[in-house]
Amino acid sequence: MTKITRRTFNAGLGVSAALGSLSLPGKTAFAATGNAHVIVIGGGFGGATAAKYLKRMNPKISVTLIEPSSQFSTCPFSNTVIGGTNKMDYITHSFDALKRRGVNVVQDLVTHINGDRKIVSLAKNGKMSYDRCIVSPGIDFRWDRIEGMDAASAGIIPHAWKAGPQTVLLAKQLQAMPNGGIFIISPPPNPFRCPPGPGERISLVADYFKKHKPKSKIIVLDPKKKFSKQGLFKEGWAKLYPGMIDYQNIDNDGVVHKVDVKGKKLFTDFGEYKGDVINFIPAQMAGRIAHSSGLADGTGWCPVDQMTFESKLLPGVHVVGDASVASPMPKSGFAASTQAKVCAAAVVNMLAHKPPGTPKFVNICYSLVAEDYGISVAMVYGFDKGKITKIKGSGGLSPSGADAKYRSEEADYARGWYKSISKDIWG
After folding, report:
1. What is the pTM of this model?
2. Which of 340, 369, 368, 343 is nearest to 356 (CA)?
3. Which residues contact 174 (CB under 8 A, 6 or more apart)?
4. For residue 285, which of 200, 179, 380, 161 has the smallest C-alpha distance?
5. Contact, 159 vs 141, CB < 8 A?
6. How far from each other are the two terminal CA atoms of the chain, in whole angstroms?
7. What is the mean pLDDT of the segment spanning 243-257?
8. Nearest C-alpha neighbor of 338 from the set 116, 13, 69
9. 333-351 and 404-426 are packed helices; what angle lies between their axes, rounded to 10 degrees?
10. What is the pLDDT of residues 64-74, one digit of tens each?
11. What one-character DSSP code corresponds to residue 304?
12. Could you give the domains of the chain?
């Protein structure tokens, strides 16, 4: 097998076609499936990809995508909106291209999935039957894990971990903060959506402060021992934002136990922290529909057959993306899209009474430490003994100690990656 390095891996992602070919099962035979109807729930990275690729793989399949919003705003690159370098339209995508491909897009909320009768219930449009169902519910929050916080509190202390109004709210709060103010961010415990996301958010808020509010400080209260790309992020912080970021983890009183929402205070075992702006990101679990329909187990996440992503708890229903248990793959947008392609191929073959094929997966995650400073991590995954496995020698991290030109190129790659994957999914 040819060894895949991080550079050759990144180079292979320059066109959207590569995004698909790396993740589809081999020797797939897409046969006619009559009038089969597949319902896809969720219009994000997982759901929109699944809907598109179902129609691409077999146009004869009737595909319905159900999503409560008329557009989808992505968590990837939402930190650039918070940091002031992009507007919301940069991360917001319509479903028009999917409609042109023959996908029936229904703007509604699924309230329940009846796996025995193969029926989904909608908030506004009654019931709809399916032959197979693919669910990409994303995440929800465990508000009960922290004293003083609930869903309504996010209107004052935003999480901004679902892109949209929360993104705008946090950006406006930072813009209104005085020069010399204190921004506190409390990342969530594992597992959670987008492991490098808090590091990037800290970085891009620091970049904004450096340009517009240089006397301001950032306090990080992290309940974990370490975080994704930690060494690379801290290297960038030391170089670009010396003295601005005070990072505290579980070993030095970084665990928040209580929030005073109105007083904008966070409480740890040994400290009390007051901020001008607070970004508290709660512990996470699979999206609400996964729990109301019996797709999630006691962990809060959805166990699946990792070859097909069919639920282990609700036959005929597949779960992809952040909500699924797909370790060692991370909970990322790219991973969700990759899983959705594998799942779509499996569903097409299963409807045609064909074996699903042996999948391969890929993930790459770019992070911006500044507008012109990028870092990345990549990995290719195979499938062995019923589980997703890392392929030895593939992927890797950006090197430490790289020069400014290298970091600037990676920032350009990050923007190219986002443009490419957005076109691949919603274009």
Report:
1. 0.93
2. 343
3. 82, 84, 183, 205, 208, 277
4. 161
5. yes
6. 33
7. 97
8. 13
9. 30
10. 999 999 999 99
11. B
12. 1-22+360-427 (3.90.760.10), 149-280 (3.50.50.60)
Q: Phi/psi of residue 92, each to 5°? A: -110, 130
Token code pair at residue 313: 């708890």
Q: Cα(9)–Cα(366) distance, rounded to whole angstroms?
A: 13
**Pick from 204, 198, 192, 208: which is nearest to 230 by CA?**
198
The Cα 256–Cα 270 span in angstroms is: 10
pLDDT tops 60 at residue 19:
no
Burial class (CB in 10 A: 0-12, 13-18, 19+), 264: middle
Q: Which residue has tokens 């492991």?
A: 195
pLDDT at 35: 83
Read off φ and ψ for residue 29, nearest 5 degrees: -110, 105
pLDDT value of position 33:
54
Alpha-carbon distances, residue 229 vs 72, 156, 215, 335, 392 (angstroms):
27, 30, 27, 17, 19
295 φ, ψ to 5°?
-90, -20
303: preceding bond cis by omega (within 30 degrees): no
Are 350 and 369 in contact by the 8 Å Cβ rule? The answer is: no
